[in-house]
TrEMBL record:
Documented EC number(s): 3.5.1.2
Keyword terms: Acetylation, Hydrolase
Organism of provenance: Virgibacillus byunsanensis
Protein name per the record: Glutaminase
Assembly and oligomerization: Homotetramer.
EC category name: hydrolase
Family: Belongs to the glutaminase family.
Length: 322
């Protein structure tokens, strides 16, 4: 009801102001120079629930780049193009327990495939598998999927793309390792160019909340009933988000928050809250999607205030899937 929504809204407003103070415990990502332009004190959240009912609080109008959240999109598209079996033959589904841009595991003897599609090595492999010879051809289906989910076509932030491209030594090193081990399925420089571009797609927290909501509902848009992502792919993607979505803090996130989620170094987080049987109390939140933005990051590269805010509301509103 309207009353519940108002109550949830004022509750959210209070806790966004509270956790905004926590942004000073972290730092904005600096290894991609352009990201440093973000306002370190920004914090915002959008929740889109049943019947499109929406809560929005804090810095809701800022746009920012997808960064690692794009790994979810490229993985979904690759599964839609090539089939799940083909993809799971080429990237594993195990948490790596290393930083998102770790090279270490690629040096492991007899590594059969990168650990998972949500860390850089796995994501770059996934991007190499996408159909298309040029970066534009590889990107187009990602833009189309985003457009299907969001109702509008997002744009590329060219400044962020160029900044990442020109400061990408580590990702290039990963690219060379993947080339050497034979994991890449298309040209390395086209793959990296595509990867930097997918990371540089501009979104808002409303966009993130919509993506989260569609994943939460097993790939369907709950408003129209239309299937945008096949159910099996949506489920695997959520399993990966839960186990690997917050890099090497995924175990803690699963324990303390308990929602499939994916973060990016620009400070965005998507979270997908699947509908459950025990949702009578706050039915509005059953199957909701959450988008968070807070560019000040913790040492793992996750939004510091964003995670604390999510943890708080997840506990308060009983959102854990466990
Ligand atoms: N574009 C970033 C990178 O590859 C994405 C990483 C992230 O968001 N954690 O370094």
């Amino acid at each position: 009801t309207e009353q519940t929504r108002d109550w949830l809204q004022s509750y959210t407003d209070d806790w966004v102001s509270f956790y905004r103070k926590h942004t000073s415990d972290g730092e904005v990502a600096s290894y991609i120079p352009e990201l440093l332009k973000a306002d370190p004190d920004a914090l915002g959240i959008t929740v889109i629930g049943k019947n499109g009912m929406t809560l929005r609080s804090g810095d809701v109008n800022t746009t920012f780049t997808l960064q690692s959240i794009s790994k979810v999109i490229s993985f979904v598209v690759a599964c839609m193009e090539r089939g799940v079996a083909y993809m799971l033959d080429r990237v594993d589904v195990e948490p790596a327990g290393e930083a998102f841009n770790s090279i270490m595991h690629l040096e492991m003897k007899q590594l059969k495939k990168p650990f998972n599609p949500l860390i850089n090595a796995g994501a770059i492999t996934v991007t190499s598998i996408l159909e298309g010879r040029t970066s534009d051809e590889k990107l187009e289906p990602m833009f189309e999927l985003l457009e299907d989910m969001l109702g509008h076509r997002p744009e590329l932030d060219v400044d962020v793309y160029e900044s990442e491209r020109d400061s990408s030594m580590r990702n290039r090193a990963i690219g060379y390792y993947l080339l050497e081990t034979g994991f890449l399925e298309s040209d390395m420089s086209v793959t990296l160019e595509t990867y930097f571009k997918q990371c540089s797609i501009d979104v808002s927290i409303d966009d993130l909340a919509r993506i989260g909501m569609i994943l939460a509902n097993d790939g369907r848009d709950p408003e129209t009933g239309e299937e945008i992502i096949p159910r099996q792919i949506a489920r695997i993607t959520k399993a990966l988000m839960l186990t690997c979505g917050m890099y090497d803090a995924s175990g803690k996130f699963a324990t303390y928050v308990g929602i499939p989620a994916k973060s990016g170094v620009s400070g965005g987080i998507i979270a997908a809250v699947p509908p459950r049987v025990r949702d009578e109390e706050l039915p509005f939140l059953s199957g909701c999607g959450i988008g968070v933005y807070g560019p000040s990051l913790d040492d793992k590269g996750n939004s510091i205030a964003g995670i604390r805010l999510l943890r708080h509301i997840a506990n308060q509103w009983d959102l854990s899937i466990f």
